[in-house]
């Protein structure tokens, strides 16, 4: 694991789809695990990042108003 990696490689493999093609085969590990395709995972990550950013801005505003 390097400083740029968000988690160990083994964990990332468990949470994201690493398939090069369509996940249609019953041999596909991510399909067996019910994981989303990388494109969908990226969209989810971007959406959650935006929501977290808005939440942090809201909290900062509240903290700034404290006496």
Provide a compact summary of the structure.
The protein has helices at 9-15, 29-33, 38-65.
Q: How would you describe this structure to a colleague?
A:
With 67 residues, this protein is an all-alpha fold. The protein has one domain. The chain has helices at residues 9-15, 29-33, 38-65. The longest helix is centred in the last third of the chain and has 28 residues, at 38-65. The mean pLDDT is 69.
CA radius of gyration: 17 Å
Shape: rod-shaped
Largest sheet: none
Would you list the SSEs in sequence order as H and E? Answer: HHH
Total count of strands: 0
How large is the count of helical segments? 3
Provide the low-confidence segments as ranges: none
Helix content: 55-70%
What proportion of the residues form beta strands (DSSP E)? under 5%
Structural class: mainly alpha
Round the mean pLDDT to the nearest integer and report it: 69
What is the count of distinct domains? 1
Straight-line N-to-C gap: 43 Å
List keywords for this structure.
mainly alpha, 3 helices
Set down the secondary structure blueprint.
Layout: H1 9-15, H2 29-33, H3 38-65
């Amino acid at each position: 694991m390097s400083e740029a990696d968000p988690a160990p490689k083994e964990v990332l493999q468990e949470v994201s789809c690493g398939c090069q093609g369509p996940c249609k085969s019953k041999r596909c590990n991510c399909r067996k695990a019910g994981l989303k395709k990388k494109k969908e995972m990226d969209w989810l990550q971007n959406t959650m990042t935006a929501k977290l950013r808005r939440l942090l801005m809201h909290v900062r505003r509240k903290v700034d108003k404290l006496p």
